[in-house]
């Protein structure tokens, strides 16, 4: 307890950066992921190919490698902090998985509805927005929830590039106080404070959408 | 004036020659029934009319627009050409009423109060006013198809395409759907192209019958001439097969 009291501002700062990085990466990866999911089912073959290449690259390279790429390579040309490069890497990495999840959701919606909408005069975009995506998200929600939780936990990658997040601050405190057990217990609990409400919220959303 | 005009149209799926040298003119207000054995290209042909299938050669004019011209805006054609599918293709996440109101709202920017009034009138017309708030999953096949027809009519199209509209229905549901279609056919300005196996419907409603086999149009006759005295041997054989079951 004394450990928590003594280092509270540091823990709290780490908690805040983890939350901020997760939020930015979550919103960004949802937008990017949905975009690349749609690209992969567009009628134009080259657009599908492009979407697929993106997904394959970011899904199949370790998050740590992507993070170092931004922190060590890209930052030579565009100045960015560890927090920024880690968050961008987290966003791109997660977006590849979200693209696959959303794509699976879209494919589970019967193709006839797209055809019905197009024949009814809607554009591809309108059909996606009003008919296909709302149903695809509903189907994909349980796996999207998984991705979000993974994202929060993966944000600990920031610790490797001085991203000031919870894991980073935990490492610092442990190194200064030598109380490794207590420190990482607190760090673990603080991650739970983010991930547990998140997973309960997803479950709640699932139940609500089932009734609708 | 012709609403739909095929001139030497060819359609391929890879090496498969799906439509062979199609020449066909359908005038405004005409009701034309397309029949033929399965795999003859009927559905492919009807799906080319609103651009769901591309043609590779020839010319296809719909409402004055050339569908083979890449500059043609397909959505403009689809505003005027509705389609009813074998499997209804309703929007599962929208109520019956919303299914009908969505396209007029998004595409025609129709005023919301007027949109609702027209949608309710159409539901009345197809006998489903009491189902306005229901979801598609709560409707029977026949009811779904009547909603799909109302959805197409809400765009106030000049032409309606029906791709085997009763083939997926239980026998006792078919009558209601055909009644609605008969009603639409009475409207002298509506052009209808119908792929169907319902010969009694064809006899009662069609101005003309087109018989297709193996991707070709083998016969194009007035309804009476076709049923009384089909010219083609394959048409004769087909008629005897469908009429004896």
Automatic annotation (TrEMBL), chain A:
Q: How does it sit in the membrane?
A: Multi-pass membrane protein
The record's GO CC annotations read: ATP-binding cassette (ABC) transporter complex
- Gene Ontology biological-process annotations: amino acid transport
Subcellular location per the Swiss-Prot or TrEMBL entry: Cell membrane
From the Swiss-Prot or TrEMBL record, what is one GO molecular function term? transmembrane transporter activity
Record InterPro entries: AA_ABC_transptr_permease_3TM (IPR010065), ArtM/GltK/GlnP/TcyL/YhdX-like (IPR043429), MetI-like (IPR000515), MetI-like_sf (IPR035906)
Q: Which Gene3D superfamilies match?
A: MetI-like
Q: Which residues cross the membrane?
A: 20-41, 53-74, 80-99, 157-175, 181-202
Keyword Transmembrane on this protein?
Answer: yes
Q: Which UniProt keywords apply?
A: Amino-acid transport, Cell membrane, Membrane, Transmembrane, Transmembrane helix, Transport
Its primary localisation, in coarse terms, equals membrane
Superkingdom: Bacteria
* NCBIfam families assigned to the protein according to its UniProt record, in alphabetical order: HEQRo_perm_3TM
- Could you identify this protein by its name? Amino acid ABC transporter permease
Q: Which organism is it from?
A: Leuconostoc holzapfelii
From TrEMBL, chain B:
Q: Which InterPro entries does the annotation name?
A: AAA+_ATPase, ABC_ATPase_HisP-typ, ABC_transporter-like_ATP-bd, ABC_transporter-like_CS, MetN_ABC_transporter-like, P-loop_NTPase
Q: Which UniProt keywords apply?
A: ATP-binding, Nucleotide-binding, Transport
What PROSITE patterns does this protein's entry cite?
ABC_TRANSPORTER_1, ABC_TRANSPORTER_2
All copies of the ABC transporter domain together span 4-239
For this chain, one GO molecular function annotation is:
ATP binding
Q: Does Nucleotide-binding count among this protein's keywords? A: yes
**Protein family:** Belongs to the ABC transporter superfamily.
UniProt-recorded name of the protein = Amino acid ABC transporter ATP-binding protein
Provenance organism: Leuconostoc holzapfelii
Q: What is the lineage of its organism?
A: Bacteria, Bacillati, Bacillota, Bacilli, Lactobacillales
């Amino acid at each position: 307890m004394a450990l928590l009291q003594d280092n509270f501002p540091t823990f709290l700062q780490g908690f805040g950066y983890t939350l901020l990085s997760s939020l930015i990466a979550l919103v960004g990866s949802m937008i990017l992921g949905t975009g690349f999911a749609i690209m992969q089912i567009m009628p134009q073959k080259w657009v599908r190919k492009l979407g697929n290449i993106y997904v394959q690259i970011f899904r199949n390279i370790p998050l740590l490698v992507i993070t170092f790429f931004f922190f060590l390579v890209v930052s030579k040309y565009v100045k960015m902090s560890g927090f920024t490069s880690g968050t961008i890497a987290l966003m791109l990495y997660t977006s590849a998985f979200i693209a696959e999840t959303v794509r699976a959701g879209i494919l589970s919606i019967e193709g006839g509805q797209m055809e019905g909408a197009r024949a009814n005069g809607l554009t591809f975009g309108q059909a996606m927005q009003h008919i296909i995506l709302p149903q695809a998200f509903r189907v994909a929600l349980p796996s999207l929830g998984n991705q979000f939780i993974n994202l929060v936990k993966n944000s600990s990658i920031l610790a490797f590039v001085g991203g000031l997040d919870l894991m980073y601050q935990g490492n610092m405190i442990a190194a200064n106080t030598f109380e490794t057990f207590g420190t990482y217990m607190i760090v673990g609990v603080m991650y739970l404070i983010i991930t547990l409400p998140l997973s309960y919220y997803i479950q709640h959303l699932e139940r609500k959408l089932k009734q609708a | 004036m012709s609403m739909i005009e095929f001139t030497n149209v060819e359609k391929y799926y890879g090496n498969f020659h799906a439509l062979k040298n199609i020449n066909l003119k359908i005038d405004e207000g005409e009701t034309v029934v397309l029949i033929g054995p399965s795999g003859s290209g009927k559905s492919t042909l009807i799906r080319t009319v609103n651009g769901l299938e591309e043609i590779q050669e020839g010319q296809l004019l719909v409402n004055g627009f050339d569908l083979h011209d890449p500059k043609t805006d397909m959505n403009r054609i689809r505003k005027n050409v509705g389609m009813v599918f074998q499997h209804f293709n309703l929007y599962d996440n929208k109520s019956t009423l919303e299914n009908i109101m969505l396209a007029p709202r998004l595409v025609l920017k129709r005023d919301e109060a007027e949109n609702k009034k027209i949608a309710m009138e159409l539901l009345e017309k197809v006998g489903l006013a009491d189902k306005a708030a229901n979801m598609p999953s709560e409707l029977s096949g026949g009811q779904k198809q009547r909603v799909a027809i109302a959805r197409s009519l809400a765009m106030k199209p000049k032409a309606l395409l029906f791709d085997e509209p009763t083939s997926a229905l239980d026998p006792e549901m078919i009558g209601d759907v055909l009644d609605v279609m008969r009603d639409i056919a009475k409207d002298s300005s509506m052009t209808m192209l119908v792929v169907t196996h319902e010969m009694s419907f064809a006899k009662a409603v069609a101005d003309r019958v087109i018989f297709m086999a193996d991707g070709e149009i083998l016969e194009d006759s007035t309804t009476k001439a076709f049923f009384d005295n089909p010219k083609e041997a394959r048409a004769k054989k087909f008629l005897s097969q469908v009429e004896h079951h």
